[in-house]
């Protein structure tokens, strides 16, 4: 009888370990999944105007900050790997947008980071400028973190900034849709996957007792996702076509 109980406990433990590993894999790669339909949409239409590249800016800053937060406060390795995957994904999105915009550009005027023109911040013509900006931001964060790493207040502030930026992920897209009075060119599938991912992610944070900043961030993201979906219903005359 005792042996049966032990075997059942081992089976349950093994099942839980398998589910936990699966959830971790989903956390690492699931965040990049919503951008697949948007990537395909831009490739298909050869037009990136419906997608706000400032989404990439927000996510790059958030995930760079999260990596330095991890250095100061080692939380789940899963979340660190997720940040690396998201950074690679955002660079892929930016590279595609730059390629499409340069192909469609009528004017020969190029906007570069070296121009130091704030009006064209994050609207540069060359992909290399985005890489250079992120490299400079990373070096700055590295220097400050090295100097203040022993300060618990600094580390917690770093974590709060990281999740605050991540919580604002959908805000640039929300504002762009509002300015355009349209959601044309934006993949509705991307937003639906955002919503599903944010619900899953928030549940994961709560169940794994992650730092409070993470699940608060998740709740804010869900609210913004819902607001964007309401824009789709409001602006689109044929939502079924956009979902197709």
Automatic annotation (TrEMBL):
Which controlled-vocabulary keywords does the entry list?
A: Membrane, Repeat, Transmembrane, Transmembrane helix
| Protein's membrane topology | Multi-pass membrane protein
Keyword match Protein transport: no
**Subcellular location(s) of the protein:** Membrane
Return the GO cellular component terms, semicolon-separated: cytosol; endosome; membrane; trans-Golgi network
Xref: Pfam families = PQ-loop
One GO biological process term? phospholipid translocation
Name the residues that span the membrane: 16-39, 51-71, 77-100, 130-149, 213-235
UniProt xrefs under InterPro entries: PQ-loop_rpt, SLC66/Scramblase_ANY1
Q: What is this protein called?
A: Solute carrier family 66 member 2
Species name: Larimichthys crocea (Large yellow croaker)
Ranked from the top, the taxonomy reads: Eukaryota, Metazoa, Chordata, Craniata, Vertebrata
């Amino acid at each position: 009888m005792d042996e049966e109980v032990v075997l059942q406990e081992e089976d349950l433990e093994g099942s839980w370990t398998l589910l936990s590993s699966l959830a971790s894999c989903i956390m690492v790669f699931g965040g990049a999944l919503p951008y697949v339909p948007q990537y395909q949409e831009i490739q298909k239409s050869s037009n990136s105007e419906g997608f706000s590249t400032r989404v990439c800016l927000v996510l790059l800053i958030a995930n760079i900050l999260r990596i330095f937060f991890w250095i100061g406060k080692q939380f789940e390795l899963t979340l660190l790997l997720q940040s690396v995957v998201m950074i690679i994904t955002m660079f892929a999105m930016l590279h595609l947008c730059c390629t499409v915009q340069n192909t469609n550009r009528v004017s020969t005027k190029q906007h570069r980071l070296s121009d130091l023109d704030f009006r064209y911040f994050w609207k540069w013509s060359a992909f290399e400028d985005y890489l250079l900006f992120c490299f400079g931001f990373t070096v700055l964060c590295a220097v400050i973190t090295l100097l203040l790493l022993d300060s618990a207040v600094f580390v917690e502030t770093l974590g709060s900034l990281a999740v605050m930026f991540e919580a604002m992920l959908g805000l640039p897209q929300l504002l762009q849709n509002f300015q355009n009075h349209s959601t044309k060119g934006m993949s509705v599938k991307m937003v639906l996957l955002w919503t599903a991912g944010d619900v899953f992610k928030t549940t994961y944070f709560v169940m794994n007792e992650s730092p409070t900043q993470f699940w608060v961030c998740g709740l804010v993201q869900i609210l913004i996702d819902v607001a964007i979906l309401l824009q789709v219903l409001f602006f689109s005359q044929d939502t079924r076509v956009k979902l197709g």
